[in-house]
Amino acid sequence: WYQRRVHESNMATTQILTGSHNPSEEVFPGLKISQIDSFVITCLEEDVGSGDHTSNATISPSTKAEAKFLAKDNGVLAGCLVADRVFHLVDQTITVQWLKHDGDHVTKGEHFGIVNGPARALLKAERLALNIMQRMSGIASLTALMVDACKPHATKVLDTRKTAPGMRLLDKWAVLLGGGVNHRLRLDDMILIKDNHVTAAGGITAAVRNVQSYMAEHHLSIPVEVETRTLEEVQELVSLSAGVDRVMLDNMVKVRENGEVDTSMLSQALAIINRKYATEASGNVTLATTAAIAATGVDYISCGSLTHSVKALDISLKIHTVPEHQ
Prior knowledge:
The protein has twelve helices and 16 strands. A six-stranded parallel sheet has the order 8-15-14-11-10-9. Strands 5-7-3-16 form a four-stranded antiparallel sheet, covered by helices on one side. α2 packs across α4, α5 (119-150) runs parallel beside α11 and α9 (231-238) packs parallel to α10. Helices cover 44% and strands 20% of the residues. With 326 residues, it is α/β, with parallel strands linked by helices.
């Protein structure tokens, strides 16, 4: 499914460049090209204001330029399609040629895209295009490293809702491009009973029973996940006959002072569950701890830092003018 979505996103990029795209087409679940355009327009209004006075003052409107995207570090590329829309909405005469596409690996020193058009327009679009691509590529790159760290185990890497406001679908799209799996996009995608819900409901059993009643009353058929923090809570949850699809095992991994990853509590919890439910480990999840967590056999690893504290992939766009006869 992941490979199909990457292929479809690349096909969508090609369609956009040839002008054959459909604004209502989804390039990622829940994300249409028309929504990308609305997002880009809002960002351009924020960045440009009434106009790029510096470029307008220093550069002739007839000056043409070419710019090349340069990867200044190794990583996974993401955000090409969105960058296309940035350039298109700034000036429809700009052309973009991608040598690599969303989901492709790039290496330090590699040129992966060429942009041609009016110099003023390229400079107006440059910062927004880079900001989006650097963030999305940073997310995709870290995700890919964590996915590799899980091998040869079948554990899948999940994102969370800890995304940049207004950029959730782009953040989660980047996770998918990096080989990860999306957790819920919104609160209405699934029921996730967390510690505060458990406390307010009066315990795990009460919370699950309340959920069962709620779903029956509202005719809902969505997944149910329950967060557990102790082995006692895991045991209580396992004793329930039905109503749960996945268990979140929170903070059951410890990192000792010497850097050793202690997964003993997580392993005990998995033994209690004994495959009755799908399992998800969360808390103390980093690239350094991923391999040890995956080795326990847990089904999923969720990691908030994929999106809430991402390190941008270093990408530059170097512009040079083109003689008028070209």
